[in-house]
UniProtKB/TrEMBL annotation:
This is Regulatory protein TetR. The keyword DNA-binding applies. Residues 11-70 form the HTH tetR-type domain. The keyword DNA-binding applies. Residues 33-52 bind DNA. It comes from Pseudofrankia inefficax (strain DSM 45817 / CECT 9037 / DDB 130130 / EuI1c). It comes from the Bacteria. It holds the Pfam family TetR_N. One of its GO terms (molecular function) is DNA binding. Keywords: DNA-binding, Transcription, Transcription regulation.
């Protein structure tokens, strides 16, 4: 999962820090030091602390910005030709594809929240917001598809997504259809055709 840096971000030190933070902390973990972050962004530590009150702020901002990249890679576009079922399964198909990438480290939001271990940490707050957005996407599609309990289905689909992502990381191998098959079983049980 890569993140291209916009041309205007190259000259703005705050933008460079934020742009570097998402991919760096995804690859290396949020315990990665300020020195590595500043090196990746081409910014001095002094400048970083003039722009941000703490590394935690940079982690949260980087994760928040990187969410757009993740969403573009993992969610179907608004003009996706399929109905609700196909749109939900597209997310799982994207997860399946990502799980085969040697750079795949699982869901960046789950990884950050687990690593910081504090539900009030700025990165955990950002992670929670983006996980809620994924669940919201599933709930919207479940409603469109006529599911009897769209919120319950959405929560279950999010659990399958997160569990599948974790499985791929822990076992260090692609999902090989497991995520799509499990999501399909849930959609079938919910009557989402």
């Amino acid at each position: 999962m890569s993140n291209a840096t916009a041309p205007e971000a190259r000259s703005d030190p705050a933008a460079r820090l934020v742009a570097a933070a998402g991919p760096l902390f995804y690859r290396e973990g949020v315990a990665t030091g300020v020195d590595a972050l500043c090196r990746a962004a081409g910014v001095s530590k002094r400048t970083m602390y003039q722009l941000f009150a703490s590394k935690d702020e940079v982690i949260a901002a980087g994760l928040d910005q990187w969410a757009d990249t993740i969403r573009a890679l993992m969610w179907p576009p608004d003009d996706h030709p399929g109905g609700p079922r196909e749109r939900v399964l597209a997310v799982f198909a994207a997860l399946e594809a990502a799980s085969g990438d040697p750079e795949f480290r699982g869901c960046p939001f789950v990884a950050a929240a687990v690593e910081v271990k504090d539900s009030d940490h700025p990165a955990a707050v950002v992670a929670r917001r983006h996980k809620e957005a994924l669940t919201g996407f599933f709930a919207t599609e479940a409603r469109r598809g006529g599911a009897a309990d769209p919120d319950g289905l959405a929560a279950a689909l999010t659990i399958v997504y997160d569990g599948s992502s974790a499985r791929a990381v822990v076992l260090a191998r692609p999902l090989d259809g497991l995520a799509v098959a499990t999501a399909t079983t849930l959609l079938d049980a919910a009557g989402l055709r």
